[in-house]
Specification:
alpha+beta, six-stranded mixed sheet, NTF2-like_dom_sf, Nuclear Transport Factor 2, Chain: A, signal, FrzH/put_lumazine-bd
Length: 154
């Protein structure tokens, strides 16, 4: 009888601890929402859908760069050059009604640890998966900022 009672107690403890783990609130939920909003405003809409260079400059840290391989070296594309190019494109040939200017996105993952975060976001254009981007963010006194990007073009 004692043996059965121990088994039942063990099952109850395991079930309770499993339930507690499942119901544990996401401590980083608020940070994830802030990060999503920043990326939607500064990146998805700033760099792609609305071509809003000012939103880019607010959401990206001034030392931000896109890092990509160039042979065995690393190529760096700074935010100033990118945002200036976005502003120029909007001034020259941007038509918001043109479907090629409509980018869809999917947040594949958002990982937050303290004041650091990593976001994997997939961008689609005209129904095709074009980019998988990895955005690194840091939280400063003024809030979250995007500090680096590496990507894969499909």
């Amino acid at each position: 009888m004692k043996r059965n009672n121990l088994k039942i107690l063990a099952v109850i403890v395991l079930a309770a601890s499993s339930l507690a783990f499942t119901l544990k609130p996401d401590r980083d939920a608020a940070a994830k929402e802030e990060i999503k909003e920043l990326i939607l405003t500064s990146y998805v809409n700033g760099a792609f859908n609305a071509l809003d260079a000012d939103a880019m400059r607010k959401g990206f840290h001034e030392d931000f760069a896109i890092y990509s391989p160039k042979g065995e070296a690393i190529s760096k594309y700074p935010i100033k050059v990118w945002a200036d190019g976005v502003a120029k494109r909007k001034a020259n040939d941007y038509n918001p009604a043109d479907v090629k200017n409509k980018w869809d996105h999917n947040f594949a993952s958002i990982d937050v640890t303290g004041n650091a975060a990593q976001v994997k976001i997939e961008l689609h254009n005209l129904g095709k998966h074009v980019y998988t981007d990895y955005l690194s963010l840091l939280k400063f006194e003024s809030g979250w900022r995007i500090v680096a990007k590496v990507y894969h073009q499909h």
